[in-house]
Amino acid sequence: MTWRFAFSTLGMPGAEVADAVRTALAHGCHGIELRAHPDEAVHPGMPPWREREVGARIGDAGLEIACLAGYARVCAPGPDGPVVEELRALVRLAARLGAPSVRVFPGGGGDGGRGGEDAAHERIGAVLPDLRDHGVRLLVETHDSHPTGEAALRLVEPFDPAEPVAVLWDALHPWRMGEAPSRTRLVLRDRLGYFQVKDAVAAAGGGVTPGP
Question: 45 near 86, Cβ under 8 Å?
Fold first, then answer.
C-alpha cells in the first residue's frame, strides 16, 4: 500500500487557497482537503472563474484536491429535499474541481441518530446517480450521532460496496467513544474510504477539544 497524505483547511479557517498550497508543500503533502463552506473561498455557488482559479492554483503546484469537506447532514431531521439538493451541489462542485470525494456528516437527532438512518438511506440513494455520473464518492464521517465505525457503517451498509459510498474514519471520535482503532478498522473493512487524524487535548471533565 502506498500512503498519500493531505491536510485539511478545516485547520486554517478563512485562509486563502494560496496559503493552503504553501502549507501543503512545506510539509510534504500530496494534496489538500478543502473545507466547502460559505465562509470559505471554496463553496457551492462560487463563480466559475473562481473554481478555475482554485483548481489551477492547486494543480499547478503539483497537488491534488483530496476531498471536499461539506456540511450536509444525511440523518438530519426534516424533509429530504433540502438535504438532497445540498448533497447534489457538493457533488457537482467536487466534479468541477476534480475532487474525488465529498465528506458529509451523519447529523442525526437526539435519539442517537437511529431514527434518521432510514432518511439517510433515502437521501444517499437519491444522489447515487449523481455520484456515478460525476465520478465522485460520498464519504460519511464517523461523527456526531454516528461517532463509531460500527454506527457509521449502518449508514452505508445497505449500498453495494461497488457503489461510490463509503465511510470517512475520523480517528478521534470512535476512540473517544471507546471503540479501539483495531475494532474500527475491522468493522469498516472495504467500506473505509478515507482516514483522518487530528490533534486533540483531553479536557479535565473527560471530554476532548481539537488542538490548534
Answer: no
